[in-house]
Amino acid sequence: MLSERRLQVLRAIVQDYVGTEEPVGSKALTERHNLGVSPATVRNDMAALEDEGFIAQPHTSAGRIPTDKGYRLFVDKLAGVKPMTPPERRAIQNFLEGAVDLDDVVARTVRLLAQLTRQVAVVQYPSLTRSTVRHVELLSLAPARVMLVLITDTGRVEQRMVDCPAPFGETSLADLRARLNSRVAGRRFTDVPTLVEDLPEGFDLEDRGTVSAVLSTLLETLVEENEERLMIGGTANLTRFGHDFPLTIRPVLEALEEQVVLLKLLGEAGDSGMTVRIGHENAYEGLNSTSVVSVGYGSGGEAVAKLGVVGPTRMDYPGTMGAVRAVARYVGQILAES
Amino acid sequence: MLSERRLQVLRAIVQDYVGTEEPVGSKALTERHNLGVSPATVRNDMAALEDEGFIAQPHTSAGRIPTDKGYRLFVDKLAGVKPMTPPERRAIQNFLEGAVDLDDVVARTVRLLAQLTRQVAVVQYPSLTRSTVRHVELLSLAPARVMLVLITDTGRVEQRMVDCPAPFGETSLADLRARLNSRVAGRRFTDVPTLVEDLPEGFDLEDRGTVSAVLSTLLETLVEENEERLMIGGTANLTRFGHDFPLTIRPVLEALEEQVVLLKLLGEAGDSGMTVRIGHENAYEGLNSTSVVSVGYGSGGEAVAKLGVVGPTRMDYPGTMGAVRAVARYVGQILAES
DNA sequence: CGCTGGCACTCGGACGGACAGAGTGCCAGG
DNA sequence: CCTGGCACTCTGTCCGTCCGAGTGCCAGCG
């Protein structure tokens, strides 16, 4: 429905606007991109594009800027993903390889993404629900006090205190530890509840209360920690947002502090492949003037968590998408190795 | 050297400026505070205060604003710490009591501080070096692989993998666990190195390598985790900074992302009592237009870490100091209980 | 039918002068 | 030592003008 040339014009407008941050007019367009037609023709095309809602004028007799819908079309049809250059790839790999533990991997990833894209980076910790159990440990800290430590294949460790209804001997503890591990080690977290369901039955009556307490704490941990954690960075890049600054930046900072909002944001993004949410496509109001580029990453072929960046709708989509994809890929590798 | 009235004038200037964010003139001063003298007199006093460097004019024929030196005097001599009201105290306590683990305590504290002061809050995790050991646990994950878990009296947990030079039996492991705990449980982290020094000597020759490996990992953990962690929050409050916004806010955001900078900042603050660093008193350049109010907190009488807020030099010092002190006190209580 | 050049029109941003208001410093008098 | 008065200075604002960029439309051309 839109002629080839009109798409070219839209692409040119997006590119110029992203570069200059200023409304772009017909004359400037023909000068910078050799479209082979005159400004007048471009004006006609622009009028058509405006009718369709892809671009808009801040005010009469100003240049045009892309609308969210315009960016959408640009991302879907007009722009590819700009691959990283080999030196960039090497830099990413080197930077990530120095990490010593999971926290460090996540921290480095955030830094890296923020630097590469010059935007705000968000990295979700590998999810517990999609991970598998490496080991469950029980420590007796006091006669009626047990500490539960949960170790995942992604290196994450969670611990919880359990107050026992009755004193619990070392032998019972060792017994429980052994049985518990033989059932859940190597299994996915989602399967754990059914796997341990009948476990108390094998124990003496007096110990069952404690066993149940331990198990329910374990299940609680799985549920609670289902609320994923995440790390953000590069907030200083918010200062490059635009001129109307204070109004735009405040809700963004607020959104970034509300991990719940961010997690929901990432959660809504498609499970496979890269997702780009532009402006009003974001459900959260404060982020209506931002775009979110996110992608899943994981140690194997499967995604265990997501990462991405938050930036102004006026962003370099191909470059950002390239960086996000590359970082996700390398983080996956690093996790697989450890 | 400064007459009583001149100090009153300075106090009035600080209070008005903090409230209005605008340079304050002699006339407005006499109107709002009944100083009992005429504007002309106040003008003379202002001239004197300016000569001494306590206040300054943005430009000729404008009102005066306090200098860093002026704020200093205000904080040291003119202002008290404004205590929290009973309802506020209750709110603090209620809010903190809902915390389930150390992470949660810290997270809640950050939120609380940011809300109370409407500024950026910084909370340091309880330091390992000043804490005591509650328990050291050793888990055998594989014949030659041991996991070391360290639990502190503040509820912090650290874990490390240890690769053993030789297979290490369960009995040896239990032996080591028992001996280790009998030596270090309840002791301060700083004392641990000397306490475990001769521990390998009690073991068979074949096990000594592993014992040494475990011990050196333990000591490493102490050193590494000496690099404290911290949590920040309330960055959205930065938007209330002032008009010249983008320039001021950027370096602050950058500083907040550099945990190293913040830790140094807190570290430089005095060990006991509340510390207020005003503007250029902060060593880090990016924070030259901010003030940092910090105080130590701890489970017992002794401080194990610090917390505080970062805000514009033009802040409500008495109120901020009151909030910081109160929060620190209640966090200390909560930690002591758990 | 689509492209082009020309033309009149509109609007925002920059420039500059005038003006009001707030604040100061200084001085003479109580 | 305080006070009222006075002249001065500086900023922020308002207003009118002007310029340039950009548009929409139209008639003509291939």
Automatic annotation (TrEMBL), chains A, B:
Gene3D superfamilies: 3.30.450.40, Heat-inducible transcription repressor hrca homolog, domain 3, Winged helix-like DNA-binding domain superfamily/Winged helix DNA-binding domain. One of its GO terms (biological process) is negative regulation of DNA-templated transcription. Pfam families: HrcA (PF01628). GO terms for molecular function: DNA binding. Residues 103-321 form the Heat-inducible transcription repressor HrcA C-terminal domain. It comes from the Bacteria. The keyword Lipoprotein does not apply. The keyword Membrane does not apply. Keywords: Repressor, Stress response, Transcription, Transcription regulation. HAMAP family: HrcA. Negative regulator of class I heat shock genes (grpE-dnaK-dnaJ and groELS operons). Prevents heat-shock induction of these operons. Belongs to the HrcA family. This is Heat-inducible transcription repressor HrcA. It comes from Streptomyces cupreus. The lineage of its organism: Bacteria, Bacillati, Actinomycetota, Actinomycetes, Kitasatosporales. The gene is hrcA.
